[in-house]
């Protein structure tokens, strides 16, 4: 068939064929489920019954009026704060390990290693670290003389349980962010730093006026990943605290899954998912506007 076509016709046929397949997969596994999610958010479907009664905006009213649902967004704030600190520390280590440091490849591997570990395995690992009676953290604090902190229930105190959980994410993902920043730093021409040194610029000024502007887009990318990750946390509170104590560590995604699979309210869970998607788009739009404004 192709042999009978001209070159231009063959080219168009091949382009269309290779475009249709990924487009069909995208429509089937992304856009159609998304549209079905929006449709289900206007029903009271329980996930099992063939009946899907249309109830209009009732689910959305429940999401915004019930503090036990929309209020859990405040628990995600800890992950956002720790994520910002994580990026700062990642930039710091990336700058150090991009210099002529002996054994820098070993330290790069050491910092990146936590990222390749399974998330559930990491959660179980830190369950022993944060254990109140036999945990390694309290044992270390006791040996260092911090007796008042050595008996702290890191996963049982509602005041800081989310920061405790977020610190696990800090340990696991900091190396990943560092590698991204490291790749960006290595793409900066060395001549720029040499010229700055000849002009008498200090290391801090070189970082401020050469390094930061050249990795600005990478910072924007990592902040994008940080914000989306902070809003979509699920595995750590699910494994380590199961949302406790008394719901203090429940995240919005945790609440969605609980609503769908524990309470069989798929209509409300769908509405919560749509709200989460809208909120993520809104927050990222503001972030992109502010960063692009700063970049200009």
TrEMBL record:
Q: Which segments constitute the ABC transmembrane type-1 domain?
A: 76-287
Q: How does it sit in the membrane?
A: Multi-pass membrane protein
Highest rank taxon of the organism: Bacteria
Annotated compartments? Cell membrane
Its main subcellular localisation, reduced to a broad class, is membrane
Tell me the leader sequence span: none
Which Pfam families does the annotation name? BPD_transp_1
The UniProt entry's coiled-coil ranges are none
What keywords are assigned to this protein? Cell membrane, Membrane, Transmembrane, Transmembrane helix, Transport
Q: Which residues cross the membrane?
A: 12-32, 77-97, 109-130, 163-184, 266-286
Q: Does the keyword Transmembrane apply?
A: yes
Gene3D superfamilies documented for this protein: MetI-like
Q: Which family does it belong to?
A: Belongs to the binding-protein-dependent transport system permease family.
The identity of this protein, by name, is Carbohydrate ABC transporter permease
What organism does the UniProt record list as the source? Marinicrinis sediminis
């Amino acid at each position: 068939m192709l042999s009978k076509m001209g070159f231009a016709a063959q080219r168009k046929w091949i382009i269309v064929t290779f475009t249709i397949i990924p487009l069909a997969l995208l429509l089937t596994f992304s856009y159609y489920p998304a549209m079905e999610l929006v449709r289900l958010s206007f029903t009271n479907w329980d996930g099992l019954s063939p009946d899907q009664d249309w109830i209009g905006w009732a689910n959305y009213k429940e999401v915004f009026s019930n503090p036990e649902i929309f209020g859990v967004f405040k628990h995600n704030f800890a992950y956002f704060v720790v994520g910002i600190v994580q990026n700062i520390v990642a930039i710091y280590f990336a700058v150090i390990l991009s210099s002529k440091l002996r054994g820098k490849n070993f330290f790069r591997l050491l910092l990146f290693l936590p990222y390749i570990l399974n998330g559930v395995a990491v959660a179980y690992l830190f369950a022993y670290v944060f254990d109140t009676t036999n945990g390694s953290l309290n044992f270390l604090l006791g040996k260092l003389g911090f007796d008042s902190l050595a008996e702290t229930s890191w996963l049982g105190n509602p005041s800081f349980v989310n920061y405790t959980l977020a610190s696990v994410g800090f340990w696991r993902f900091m190396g990943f962010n560092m590698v991204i920043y490291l790749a960006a730093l290595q793409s900066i021409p060395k001549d720029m730093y040499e010229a700055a040194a000849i002009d008498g610029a200090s290391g801090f000024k070189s970082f401020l006026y050469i390094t930061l502007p050249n990795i600005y887009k990478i910072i924007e990318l990592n902040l994008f990943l940080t914000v989306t990750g902070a809003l979509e946390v699920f595995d750590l509170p699910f494994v380590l605290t199961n949302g406790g104590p008394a719901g203090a560590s429940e995240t919005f995604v945790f609440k969605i899954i609980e609503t769908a699979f524990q309470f069989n309210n798929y209509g409300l869970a769908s509405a919560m998912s749509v709200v989460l998607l809208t909120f993520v788009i809104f927050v990222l739009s503001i972030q992109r506007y502010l960063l692009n404004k700063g970049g200009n």
